[in-house]
């Protein structure tokens, strides 16, 4: 069963950089996503990786119903997400990168976790019961003293677990986790990643896991999309993609990760081109170590490579 799906989604933002542009009605178009198609099956963790500025968060917002696409379609549980009669309320939830910015500091933990249920019209007794069950599922206490605490009384790891409890309390079909462990200490990250996998297994919830950390993606994701400059460069089963990359960009990402025993770190050269002025050919051609003249003039399509892989370019 397919929970959510984007088809050829393109997202453009119109910018005005200053007073002169506003007076002259001059607009600058920033293309954040270009013909992106992503499929999220039932009870799976789908990973999305890429450098900062590649469009990962924009895609997550579009999948979550927060940002309509400029072109293309988005479906959630068989219905158009941005259609006139669509109503995914409570079925899609978010876990954001910064737990401190994702809560009202005046709320108690009980109010934070119960808030989705309050908005969905649950009775007080039901809210209390479901909130305690959600806190139990993420390994936190459910006593009155703990529920009466405020966010500043918790550690970063505890607060992120509260955020995850708030996300699962309404039993959503899809949780979009945008860098859910990046602001935590290394010692706490594995606990949050294990928690995400256990919630997938116990609740049957699908996750769209956005990260720049390939190690985290390898650990939790069943299937992986590699995004660069608003385009999917490669996709496939996570272990297959990261252990045997087909695309030069994926290979460059893998080589840029420091590993125990490695003597040399191969950082990706150059900077991500501006989405305001996109390269004429392959988006990665300005940084690719094997780019040819054809790469700089011809735009490669995302094509099937083998039984379960897709890539815009094939390493020779």
Automatic annotation (TrEMBL):
Q: What are the entry keywords?
A: ATP-binding, Nucleotide-binding, Transport
* InterPro entries to which the protein is assigned, alphabetical: AAA+_ATPase (IPR003593), ABC_transp_ATP-bind (IPR050319), ABC_transporter-like_ATP-bd (IPR003439), ABC_transporter-like_CS (IPR017871), Oligopep_ABC_C (IPR013563), P-loop_NTPase (IPR027417)
- The keyword Oxidoreductase is annotated on this UniProt entry: no
Which domain of life, per UniProt?
Answer: Archaea
Q: Which Pfam families match?
A: ABC_tran, oligo_HPY
Q: Which Gene3D superfamilies match?
A: P-loop containing nucleotide triphosphate hydrolases
Q: Which GO terms describe its molecular function?
A: ATP binding; ATP hydrolysis activity
A Gene Ontology biological process in which this protein takes part is: peptide transport
Q: Which SMART domains match?
A: AAA (SM00382)
Instruction: Please state every residue range assigned to the domain named ABC transporter.
Output: 4-254
Q: What is this protein called?
A: ABC transporter domain-containing protein
């Amino acid at each position: 069963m397919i929970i959510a799906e984007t088809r050829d989604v393109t997202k453009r933002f119109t910018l005005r950089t200053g007073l002169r542009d506003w007076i002259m009605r001059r607009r600058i178009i920033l293309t954040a996503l270009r013909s992106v198609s992503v499929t999220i099956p039932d009870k799976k963790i789908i990973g999305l990786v890429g450098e900062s500025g590649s469009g990962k968060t924009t895609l997550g917002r579009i999948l979550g119903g927060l940002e309509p696409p400029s072109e293309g379609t988005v479906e959630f549980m068989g219905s158009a997400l941005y259609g006139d009669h669509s109503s995914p309320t409570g079925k899609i939830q978010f876990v954001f990168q910064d737990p401190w910015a994702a809560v009202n500091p005046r709320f108690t933990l009980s109010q934070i976790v119960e808030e989705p249920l309050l908005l969905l019209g649950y009775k007080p007794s039901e809210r209390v019961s479901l909130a305690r069950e959600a806190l139990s599922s993420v390994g936190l206490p459910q006593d009155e003293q703990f529920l009466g605490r405020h966010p500043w009384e918790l550690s970063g790891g505890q607060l992120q677990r509260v955020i995850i409890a708030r996300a699962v309390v309404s039993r959503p079909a899809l949780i979009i986790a945008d860098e859910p462990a990046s602001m935590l200490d290394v010692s706490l990250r594995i606990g949050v990643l294990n928690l995400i996998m256990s919630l997938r297994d116990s609740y049957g919830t699908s996750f769209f896991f956005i990260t720049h950390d390939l190690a985290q993606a390898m650990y939790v994701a069943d299937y992986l999309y590699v995004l660069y400059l608003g385009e999917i460069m490669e996709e496939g089963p996570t272990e297959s993609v990261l252990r045997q990359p087909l695309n030069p960009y994926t290979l460059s990402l893998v080589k840029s990760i420091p590993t125990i025993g490695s003597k040399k770190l191969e950082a990706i050269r150059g900077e991500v081109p501006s989405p305001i002025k996109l390269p004429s050919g392959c988006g990665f051609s300005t940084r690719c170590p094997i780019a040819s003249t054809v790469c700089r003039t011809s735009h490669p399509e995302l094509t099937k490579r083998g039984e379960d892989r897709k890539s815009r370019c094939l390493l020779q």
